[in-house]
Design a protein that fits this description.
152 residues, mainly alpha, flat
Length: 152
Amino acid sequence: MGLRRSERAEAEKLYIGSEKSLDEVAAETGVPRATIGLWSTHGRWKEKRAQSHTDPYSALEALERRRERLMLRLDKADAKDAPRLMDAIYKCTSTIECMEKGTCSVAVLLAIFRRFAEFAIAEADHATRVVLATWIEKFLEKMRLEASRDKT
């Protein structure tokens, strides 16, 4: 039982921490694809992967890994698959450039600010944390309102 648990943990970590497909995780771990599929469904791996990529830095790293894998696949692709892969590589590259230049959406900037706020709150004493949390929530709400007004 302990071996299965460690295999499951390894497979989950591999899936969530990368852009590998369930097939790739099964091949790499040696666990049958059907078992990986069940573990993924029961463990809600897709949701966990999506949550792990909400941080802009994690998203950037994931995009870079995806682009690298796509370029490797392009090297081996036939004429039918090459245009689709080139389009995916272009989209990844464009998004990476946007993130690196800082021309990202308000949502990304808010995520960065929230990350800083979590750091600041963790470092402060209780009284300061209460004040910081209040200010941060007010600021974030103001930013959300401004962003929604800009969309209309």
